[in-house]
Amino acid sequence: MKSRRPFLFAALFLLLMSLAASQIASAAAQIQYRWSAEPKKQTFPTSYTDVEGVLTFRGSAQRSAPSFGTAEMKKFVPLPIWKLTTRSSSWGGGAGWTGQPAIVRWKPDVLQTMNVKEKFKAQKGFTEVIYASLDGYVYFLELTTGEETRKPLRIGNPIKGSVSVDSRGYPLLYVGEGIPENGTIGFGLYSLIDQKRLFYMKGIDSYAKRGWGAFDSSALFNRYEDTLLVGGENGMFYSVKLNTRFDAAEKTLDIKPEVSKYRYSIVGNSYQGIENSVAVYDHYAYFADNGGSLQAIDLLANKPIWSLPSVDDTDATIVIEAENGVPFLYTGTEVDKQGSKGYAVLRKINGLTGQVVWKRQYACFTQLGDHPVNGGLLATPVLGKRSIGDRVIFTLARYGSFGSGLMVALDKKTGEEIWTWKMAKYAWSSPVDVYDENGNASLLQADSAGNLFVLSAMTGQVKGQTSLGANIEASPAVFGNYAVVATRGGHIHGLKLE
């Protein structure tokens, strides 16, 4: 029997691929698309980066690694150890949704090229926090003390999304703008050698189908192909060949970007706009839009392979996990187009075919008005690993009532509930999975009242908490025993996971 298994698996694989091809062909017909220029064909490396840290929103191309290293917690009460007060704009200071910092342990040769303070260039294991703020600045801080490592970078527009650092560890920074306070809006690429802007892409573009130019999406860098991918709220997907030249010895960095813009329309969906961060597995890119349509793009053929019909606004980033070489997506919607009451729809989806493996619905609320506050899934889910490799964990806003929330762990295979935690206050902040050396998992979850909780990822039991004093919409990033997160109260906080 053992000798026959490879042939049976091969036959089954061919059958599945045949079925997938037929479903892909029918699904792709729902999309009309056009590229402004032919983009570079590309495949992403299995490992997003070889640099220590969290370099983009949720840390990887699969958007599944918001923490780096291990944390040996015993007290399970996050201890605030430093705080920085930001400037302010019409949107205040601190950070909002998604607002995750990048945390980078720079390689020694790269560190010597940059304009950080001299004392830090001599610091062994120097690790820098890079945090974009609603005040229109990007701050640079030493991880353990919060001391500013160089002058803030003035962007000029409030930043609502999360920065990305070049996955090669090059001193190149992506910053997407959120609100057009200075008359223009788009995304920029900045040299961290001297903090000069090397490139700017305007979001208001006659080629786009929507006239809103914000970039809340956090870019992905492809370190093998010298490219960048990002989605825009103008409804376009960007593939950028960077043509990077970096010389650490000469302390020079130059790029000559070639931009290819993908615009699309999907039958039954009139809402353009990509607020979630593009997720990638191998040569497949995935994103959703403000109408709730999901789509998959083949980065070798540079064409869509499937789309799903509109459900509701989907701002939370898709998370990917491969099973036997097949990517599966975990995603969910908010309550927006449904009105003040509706359902957050959570799904597991086959990334090759678009087939929905399982679906769960949770009743949630949205506060309507001039400044609506949406309920449902705004937080990007946690993809369980190691001791919790059987589950995916979602955080829902305004579940049960306008002010409360729900954290739920679902079985990856079946979608059945493993545990739930009813939250007194709702949350937009994404949960973070943290592991000790033995693979035991804890969760960090912030809420709209300014609390940061530590939970057992096995049971959902709250093990400890601390208060940061103001609404935490932003998502934490973790490096070892240190967590960093900002609040809507105008502060960036560093915490020790004791």
TrEMBL record:
Key words of the record: Signal
PANTHER family reported for this sequence: CELL SURFACE PROTEIN (PTHR34512), OUTER MEMBRANE PROTEIN ASSEMBLY FACTOR BAMB (PTHR34512:SF30)
Species of origin: Cohnella thailandensis
Keyword set includes Aminoacyl-tRNA synthetase: no
Range of residues in the leader sequence: 1-27
Protein name (Swiss-Prot/TrEMBL): PQQ-binding-like beta-propeller repeat protein
InterPro entries reported in the protein's UniProt record: LVIVD, PQQ_rpt_dom, Quinoprotein_ADH-like_sf, TAT_signal, WD40/YVTN_repeat-like_dom_sf
Domain Pyrrolo-quinoline quinone repeat positions: 406-495
Any Pfam family the entry gives: LVIVD
The keyword Electron transport appears for this protein: no
